[in-house]
Amino acid sequence: MLPRRQGTRRIPALRFGDPRVIALFAALLQLSYQAAGFRHAQLRRSVAALLGRALEGYSTAQMTYDLARLAAHGLIERQARTHRYRPTAEGLRIAAILTKLNDRLLAPALARATAIASPHQPRWESFDRALRGLCEDAQLAA
Question: Residue 84 and residue 77: Cα distance in Å, rounded?
Answer without folding.
Answer: 9
